[in-house]
Amino acid sequence: MSTVIAAVDADAGAGPVLSTALALATLIDASVIALHVRENGTSLPKQLTSTAGVELRESTGSPIELIASAAQSPDVAALVLGARAIYGGAQPAGHTTLGVITRVSTPVVVVPPQAPPREQIARILVPLDGTRQSARALDDLLTLAHARRLEVLVLHVYSPATVPKFSDHLPHATHAREREFLLRNISTPHDRVKLLHRLGVPADDVVAAARETDADLIALAWRQTLKGGGARVVSETLAHSDIPVLLLPVGSGRVGESRPESRGVAD
Fold it and tell me: What is the CATH number of the domain that holds 219?
């Protein structure tokens, strides 16, 4: 059986991390193992995991190195860890979180400390930029979502330069373009997929769309770097999201499946 690792800290964010890991594990038929890198003598992680019936593994050392090493194990399908950053602050996440997500090729869920506990994941917001690389990175997640009958909200944000000229006055043309977009980017059936259009800046609209639609999870394809134009969407989403954010490295591991062998970090 594949494993979801919940990296739990000794603070209030540990609860949302553990509940998110359990909800994700239920979705992908995986077990949960909690990992705590000891920095003080608190018993909070032990209390939380004992109540949830989750195995706890404790270690001492560098949190980044230990968490990244555990996440790269071939049987690990996903890693869940807390953001540990000031909400809306200068950094999108804490030092440990940033160090881990830019090193591992495993799918990672970053959970903000204010995220409400959840028993299940039923609605996923999936921003797509229209590129094949982005669609391919999210393809296995969308296949899983269809198999589990989840609601998928596909978000595409147009800029003033890219918005279709006919969209305001020809409804049938708009519908045809939406159908073409889904066919080009999503290989699974579209019966539980809804396409959302926005006009603006993707980095500003993802979190707003998640709040408007009451999504349980935001799924983003990314290149494991917080530098460059495309990385601004990830940075802003991590900094301002109220719900967990699933980061799927382009060209790497898939959610729901353990990997036959450990892979290196994507470029």
Answer: 3.40.50.620
